[in-house]
Specification:
Layout lengths: L3 E11 L5 E11 L3 E5 L6 H8 L12 E4 L2 E5 L2 E2 L3 H5 L2 E5 L10 H6 L8 H6 L4 H14 L14 H15 L3 E5 L7 H18 L2 E6 L2 H7 L2 E6 L2 E7 L5 H8 L19 H6 L1
Parallel strand pairs: 3-9, 3-10, 7-8, 8-9
Antiparallel strand pairs: 1-2, 1-4, 4-5, 5-6, 10-11
Helix pairs in contact: 5-6, 6-7
Length: 277
């Protein structure tokens, strides 16, 4: 049986004014899985992903912990002393792309190597020939190598997101956390980004956890979906069970948020059906 890539147990998170973003959440993701997180706005998807990446800590309670790649990144609401090292195994992709607009695309991708090189070399951008070759290979993999010397700000949104994925590749991440990576993209660009994530999962064995606002993409790309509502997991199972009627049972009127009108019917095919085609 594959090892756990991510393991959370009894994780709760309370923000200011007593707002509970997560309520006793437990989750197990095996190595090599691609898993969708769905839920209406405010359901806790981003908060959950930030716990996995060690960007925020859970409430301090005796039973909570978060393990990543077999190592404990936080325990009882406190970050491990090895958190920085563990984070190097996790690539984060955000809705906002997080590229430096004035730098060219190649340099933006090369920043994924900063955690693996001496601070002085990183500060001055003294990247080796091997690192540059690795970055170009990553850009080729995501289909934007011709844009390598363009400024990040001059890329389209879809191209910027692909550059962000290339950055995680040069980082050497084995777990990829994507927080609403296609929310601001048009359908064509969104499909290209999701195709890349699926390819990295299938052909490189990279574990992918992706939060999505539209269930159609979960159905097409992810065999397993975890649904959150009000900070709790209300469903964890096969994506093809997420029919409109079932989602209506889970979310009520909020279920309308989870469907993207106009998306072609092929996008709604279950991932299992697509793999068998």
């Amino acid at each position: 049986m594959p090892d756990a890539a991510v393991e959370l147990r009894h994780v709760s998170k309370t923000f200011d004014h007593g707002f509970k973003a997560l309520k006793d959440v437990s989750l197990h993701v095996e190595e090599g899985e691609i898993v969708a997180l769905i839920g209406a706005s405010g359901s806790g998807k981003s908060t959950l992903l930030r716990h996995i990446s060690g960007l925020i800590c859970a409430d301090r309670q005796s039973q909570s912990f978060v393990d990543v790649a077999g190592q404990r990144i936080q325990d009882r609401g406190r970050l491990s002393g090895e958190a920085r090292k563990i984070r190097s195994k996790v690539g984060m992709i955000f809705q906002q792309f997080n590229l430096v607009g004035r730098l060219n695309v190649l340099t933006n991708v090369l920043t994924g190597t900063l955690g693996q090189m001496p601070r002085l070399r990183g500060t001055f951008g003294w990247f080796s020939t091997g690192q540059r070759q690795l970055a170009m290979a990553a850009l080729q993999r995501v289909g934007i190598a011709p844009q390598a010397l363009n400024r990040g700000a001059n890329l389209s949104g879809g191209q910027q997101q692909r550059a962000a994925i290339a950055r995680t590749l040069v980082q050497g991440a084995r777990i990829l956390i994507a927080d609403e990576p296609i929310a601001s993209l048009d359908p064509s660009a969104a499909r290209k980004v999701m195709d890349i994530l699926q390819d990295l999962n299938r052909n490189d064995g990279i574990t992918v956890i992706v939060s999505l606002h539209q269930v159609e993409y979960a159905l097409k790309y992810c065999p397993r979906t975890v649904a959150l509502r009000d900070g709790e997991i209300v469903y964890d199972g096969p994506s093809d069970a997420l029919t409109p009627d079932f989602l209506s049972e889970l979310y009520g009127a909020e279920s309308e948020e989870l469907f993207l009108p106009g998306l072609e019917a092929s996008a709604a095919r279950p991932a299992q059906e697509k793999a068998a085609a």
